[in-house]
Design the sequence.
């Protein structure tokens, strides 16, 4: 059974996604739409970390590992198949499986907090270094060269299932991306209502108590981590569709940004990370067009300000503020 | 009477220190057993071995005759063992009701789990706290909510580690009543160093000293034994 | 990034609610016509800014020069500069923006081959003319792009014989680990073998490697006659520094296809940089009247903020813009196809770097090449090769015969 | 034979570099449990100090060894005062804030100095081993790593200040009751860590280039080294540097620099899987 509140949130989110998918392509210019698709794909990535960190207590410094794996698998598979239809399930399965395997390694090894951070960070860095060093001719999977530092600029966009001749246009890909984000949000909300989701939250609250109640903490964490890997992989597929895959997807700067999106948006919420992601991405892009101030300086200053001024993240702070205002409204 | 939980020559060493040194012990169904001993006698280490938090370095643990040595805590719990730790271990971000529901949700569907959770909270006389956030409760209330979580799945055996730690005299009295009440339906092992408390509830008492079992007998006999007094007063035992 | 006067002006105008390329517009408000939009995409920050800064400065300079002379077709040029921050994703974003939002008449940009390959398909898809003004590994065959920099047949082909003639037959190659370094090292291998020598080994380094200690020991063990470097970016400068620190400068000389392309020679001390030999189609020190006049104007305008125009990157950007402007004048239109057709007539300009002519079949250029040695942080021409055609690309690409071709050819050499 | 000696020397200098770039982070993380993501930028600032100072004609040794720790230590003290102090005990927030700080430093330095700073060349020249030449400065770095480690050890173990610092980190309330101001101790420790990072930046400036973004090349490696080392910050960092640095250099020799780094990272994962509390979580637990 889904509670009223959750149902409402899911309803609103799906409605917003559908509205955005229907309306935005009509009113936005093509370039804005393509940029928006990039942001949305990263929003899915932010959501994945928001879920496992905010609700499972798994601080993953390397969520980009699954993002990149999803993208690369999609690119390599669709170039080899000549059709994107079967590339998608493959590109979802691989990051999920890798997340499960890595989760097995960490959680069954009882590795915790900071150490887990290092292992996940290291994983994405290994993938980064590896992908970066595949510029030579010997690095080929089937008919697809891995391209090293360049990545694979020829990543094919989605085609109509089983019809490789009909590729989707950027505005259609935008619609798909927005719907994916909406569905991921709804799925995350629903997961948190199930026993599995509630136990995961309980594990975040107190691992020992959950264990003493007979729940296999390691299995739950591994499963949640795999769900996160799945979502990040989906984000990677969407990203590959509007940009193309390159080692940057695994890079330290992306890995760090995801964490910042979640923190700025509000940890312990699902919408927060998505909002944080889109805000910061917009800002980064805007900063690149400014010539009077270094973009890094601007972003850095904003992050520091955010930590000191809105330590809980934007969404929770805004919700609290609204609640306060509403209360004041009631009183008067 | 069948043996529920037993150990055979259980040992636990940390580096050069042997905290539990060959403990053999058996708890029967329906029994109320107290493990006592001064600080550092090895009780808590023994408790953590029983609950799977430590993997013993020697000896074996049996549950209804089955070897369960080195099982993980969740697997121990699934056998039907309810465990309460010394420092209350709770889900501070959840409400009391949510916490207790989760305790039974492993075994039952949602509706049934809710019914049982309500019953457990009422049984511990904290039915009115269901909607409160656990993190905001007072110390005594937290102890009771934790007990509700332990009791709710109706385990065959409850293991309590120092249940009276940090309690006032009055609260300790109530805790004693509660344990006796719970003992009507569950076997209980209480790890405790407060002799007064043990006196009010005990049937069979096992005394730990320097990682070994010093003696094991009914409460009256144990408390009269000079060796036990010496242990508590810090005299060396011959 | 240093705050140039232009930036300061921008700041003021920006505050007044004007657009980014305000100076150009303001000066020509009198012309009253719609400005022609030109977009520049170069890294002004991040690890590749040592190349981006001179390119941006030269593009700014070229646009201002043209506007001061009355603009094009009676319209002023509005230059929009984007800084992709050495981030490939931002390249694609800004290229999309240039094509679909700004509707730019032409995009000048891309530094690494990685960034070029990232934006080339986008600009082609959205029918936006693209100028790539960097020395690169050659082989791009696409009617929508003009590559105005030198390619291996022009630079490597001159550098390797110099090395073999003066230093010896056998070389050791160190190269940046991406398509530029990979393909360029194949070209080096090809020319070294043609010269009767051997490539003892090729080592590739990702752009962020700074510790070359082990590589330097390996090179010593291989005992080459010379080292040829195709290293790229700020981090790789450490190689030259560590090479000098190991005291190897006297025993094994270095030649490079990239050294001096940014400001490597200025970042290094004379003891570290002296004696390194490069081949480019331009050096700031090139001695001719046009270059003298150009540098005078350039320094008069930018003053102390003028970047060092090491290798050809900045100058090629200046030339690339002027080639485009000349084509617009001849076509009397900024329409993409009209301009391409005008360029394909083989437009030729006398530039500070010597005469530069568009090669219609390949969309590359015929240009002068200099082999130059670094002395006291400056380059001195050792040999000059006038009017070198882009033979490498020409051997595989003929856009006159196959106008719809769209790929990058690679030389087929086994390393 | 002489090749083997050269390889061995490279391994030692690889380890030494890792020690040098990790020590500052080890002190800040080991003592205060603060993950300073701006550590790499402290190195960068140290490098810039060295280069700017020597550009002004200041003595080379003064520019490399004295000024960077002073300047960066001072910057560290300011950062602690303005930013870190508000965030003690909030590990994740500290990370976000120091990440922001790192970006701001990169941006600020880029705006101030751009990219046209002259590097300094390494002192000492080179010496020959058989057919090979080795940079003398590499050996100086090895010596510097040993001396630095000894200094850190001696300060913490032998001086009253070190004792007070360690005591405060163990139990701030107790220290306060004994009349020590924990705030001052934290501030000084952070500044000391920053100074170490600054010195490291000055030391590596002649070998690697000095660029606004140079810190990013070191932060991940330093972070991984310190964490793999475990609770005993000095011993842990030394042992981890030894293991990881050797793996890095050996694999770089056998394959390519990329696979050298991959090997380092894989080694770190394997170590953490086997020793979930870091190396000194299992061995040498009593060490400093």
Sequence:
């Amino acid at each position: 059974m889904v509670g009223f509140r959750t149902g409402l949130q899911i309803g609103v989110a799906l409605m917003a996604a559908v509205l955005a998918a229907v309306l935005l392509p009509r009113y936005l210019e093509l370039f804005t739409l393509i940029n928006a698709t990039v942001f949305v794909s990263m929003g899915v990535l932010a959501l994945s970390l928001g879920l496992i960190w905010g609700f499972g207590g798994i601080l993953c410094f390397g969520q980009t590992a699954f993002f990149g794996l999803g993208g690369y698998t999609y690119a390599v598979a669709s170039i080899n198949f000549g059709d994107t239809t079967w590339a998608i399930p493959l590109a979802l399965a691989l990051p999920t499986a890798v997340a499960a395997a890595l989760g097995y390694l960490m959680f069954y090894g009882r590795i915790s907090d900071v150490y887990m951070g290092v292992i996940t960070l290291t994983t994405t860095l290994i993938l980064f270094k590896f992908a970066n060093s595949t510029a030579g001719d010997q690095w080929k999977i089937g008919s697809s060269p891995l391209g090293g530092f360049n990545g694979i600029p020829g990543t094919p966009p989605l085609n109509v299932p089983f019809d490789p001749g009909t590729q989707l246009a950027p505005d259609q890909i935008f619609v798909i991306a927005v719907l994916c984000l909406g569905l991921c949000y709804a799925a995350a909300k629903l997961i948190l209502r199930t026993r599995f989701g509630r136990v995961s939250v309980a594990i975040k609250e107190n691992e020992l108590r959950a264990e003493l109640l007979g729940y296999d903490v390691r299995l739950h964490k591994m499963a949640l981590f795999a769900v996160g890997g799945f979502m990040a992989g989906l984000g990677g597929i969407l990203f590959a569709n509007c940009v193309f895959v390159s080692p940057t997807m695994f890079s330290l700067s992306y890995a760090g940004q995801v964490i910042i999106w979640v923190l700025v948006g509000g940890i312990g919420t699902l919408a927060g990370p998505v909002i944080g992601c889109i805000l910061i991405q917009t800002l980064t892009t805007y900063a690149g067009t400014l010539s009077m101030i270094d973009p890094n300086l601007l972003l850095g200053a904003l992050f520091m300000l955010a930590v000191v001024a809105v330590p809980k993240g934007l969404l929770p702070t805004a919700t609290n503020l609204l609640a306060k205002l509403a209360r004041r409204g009631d009183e008067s | 009477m069948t043996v529920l939980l037993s150990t055979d020559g259980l040992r636990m060493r940390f580096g050069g220190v042997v905290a539990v040194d060959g403990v053999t012990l058996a708890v029967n169904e329906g029994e109320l057993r107290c493990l006592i001993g001064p600080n550092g006698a090895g009780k808590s280490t023994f408790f953590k071995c029983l609950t799977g938090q430590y993997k013993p370095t020697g000896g074996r643990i049996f549950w209804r005759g089955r070897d369960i040595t080195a099982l993980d805590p969740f697997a121990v719990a699934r056998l039907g063992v309810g465990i309460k730790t010394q420092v209350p271990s709770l889900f501070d971000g959840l409400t009391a009701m949510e916490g207790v529901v989760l305790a039974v949700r492993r075994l039952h569907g949602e509706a049934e789990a809710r019914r049982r959770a309500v019953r457990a909270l009422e049984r511990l006389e904290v039915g009115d706290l269901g909607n409160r956030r656990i993190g905001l409760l007072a110390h005594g209330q937290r102890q009771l909510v934790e007990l509700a979580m332990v009791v709710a799945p109706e385990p065959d055996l409850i293991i309590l580690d120092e249940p009276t730690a940090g309690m006032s005299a009055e609260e300790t009295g109530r805790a004693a009543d509660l344990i006796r009440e719970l003992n009507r339906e569950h076997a209980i092992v209480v790890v405790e160093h407060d002799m007064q408390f043990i006196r009010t509830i005990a049937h069979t008492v096992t005394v730990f000293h320097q990682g070994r079992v010093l003696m094991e007998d009914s409460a009256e006999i144990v408390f009269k034994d000079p060796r036990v007094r010496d242990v508590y007063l810090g005299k060396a035992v011959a | 990034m240093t705050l140039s006067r232009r930036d300061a002006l921008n700041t003021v105008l920006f505050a007044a609610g004007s657009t980014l390329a305000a100076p150009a517009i303001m000066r020509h408000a009198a012309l009253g016509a719609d400005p022609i939009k030109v977009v520049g995409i170069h890294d002004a920050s991040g690890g590749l800014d040592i190349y981006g800064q001179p390119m941006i400065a030269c593009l700014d300079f070229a646009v201002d020069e043209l506007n001061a002379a009355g603009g094009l077709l009676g319209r002023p040029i509005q230059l929009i500069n984007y800084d992709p921050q050495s981030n490939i994703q931002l390249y694609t974003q800004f290229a999309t923006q240039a094509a679909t939002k700004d509707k730019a008449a032409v995009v000048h940009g891309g530094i690494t081959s990685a960034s070029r390959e990232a934006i080339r398909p986008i600009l082609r898809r959205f029918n936006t003319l693209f100028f790539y003004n960097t020395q690169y590994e050659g082989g791009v065959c696409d009617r929508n792009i003009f590559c105005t920099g030198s390619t291996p047949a022009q630079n490597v082909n001159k550098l390797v014989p110099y090395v073999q003639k003066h230093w010896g037959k056998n070389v050791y190659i160190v190269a940046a680990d991406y398509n530029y370094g990979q393909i360029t090292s194949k070209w080096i291998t090809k020319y070294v073998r043609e010269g009767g020598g051997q490539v003892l080994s090729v080592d590739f380094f990702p752009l962020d490697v700074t510790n070359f200690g082990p590589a330097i020991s390996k090179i010593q063990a291989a005992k080459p006659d010379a080292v040829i470097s195709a290293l790229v970016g700020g981090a790789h400068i450490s190689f030259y520094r560590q090479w000098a620190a190991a005291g190897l400068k006297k025993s094994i000389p270095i030649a490079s296809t990239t050294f001096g392309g940014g400001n490597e020679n200025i970042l290094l001390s004379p003891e570290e940089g002296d004696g390194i030999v490069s081949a480019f189609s331009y050096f700031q020190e090139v001695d001719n009247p046009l270059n003298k006049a150009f540098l005078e104007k350039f320094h008069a305008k930018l003053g102390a903020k003028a970047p060092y125009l090491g290798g050809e990157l900045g100058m090629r950007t200046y030339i690339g813009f002027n080639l485009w402007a000349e084509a617009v004048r001849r076509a009397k239109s900024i329409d993409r196809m009209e301009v391409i057709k005008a360029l394909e007539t083989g437009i030729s300009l006398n530039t500070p770097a010597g005469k530069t002519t568009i090669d219609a079949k390949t969309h590359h250029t015929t240009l002068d090449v200099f082999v130059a040695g670094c002395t006291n942080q400056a380059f001195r021409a050792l040999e000059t090769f006038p009017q070198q055609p882009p033979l490498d690309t020409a051997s595989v690409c003929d856009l006159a015969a196959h106008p719809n071709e769209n790929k990058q050819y690679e030389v087929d050499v086994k390393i | 034979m002489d090749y083997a000696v050269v390889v061995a020397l490279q391994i030692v200098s690889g380890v030494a570099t890792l020690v040098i770039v990790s020590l500052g982070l080890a002190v800040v993380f080991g003592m205060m449990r603060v993950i300073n993501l701006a550590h790499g930028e402290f190195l960068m600032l140290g490098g810039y100090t060295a280069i700017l100072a020597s550009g002004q004609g200041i003595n080379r040794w003064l520019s490399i060894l004295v000024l960077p720790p002073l300047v960066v230590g001072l910057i560290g003290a300011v950062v602690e005062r303005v930013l870190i102090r508000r965030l003690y005990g909030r590990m994740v927030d500290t990370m976000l804030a120091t990440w922001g700080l790192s970006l701001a430093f990169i941006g600020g330095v880029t705006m101030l100095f751009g990219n046209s700073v002259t590097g300094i060349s390494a002192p000492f020249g080179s010496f020959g081993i058989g057919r090979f030449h080795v940079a003398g400065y590499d050996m100086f770095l090895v010596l510097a790593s040993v001396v630095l480690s000894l200094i850190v050890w001696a300060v913490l173990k032998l001086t009253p200040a070190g004792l007070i610092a360690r005591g405060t980190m163990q139990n701030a309330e107790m220290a306060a009751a004994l009349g020590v101001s924990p705030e001052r101790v934290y501030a000084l420790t952070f500044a000391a860590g920053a100074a170490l990072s600054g010195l490291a930046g000055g030391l590596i400036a002649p070998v690697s280039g000095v660029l606004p973004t140079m810190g990013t090349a070191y932060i991940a490696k330093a972070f991984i080294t310190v964490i793999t080392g475990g609770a005993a910050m000095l011993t842990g960092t030394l042992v981890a540097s030894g293991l990881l640095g050797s793996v890095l250099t050996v694999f770089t020799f056998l394959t390519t620099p990329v696979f050298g780094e991959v090997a380092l990272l894989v080694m770190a994962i394997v170590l953490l899987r086997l020793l979930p509390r870091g190396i000194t979580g299992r061995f040498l637990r009593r060490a400093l």
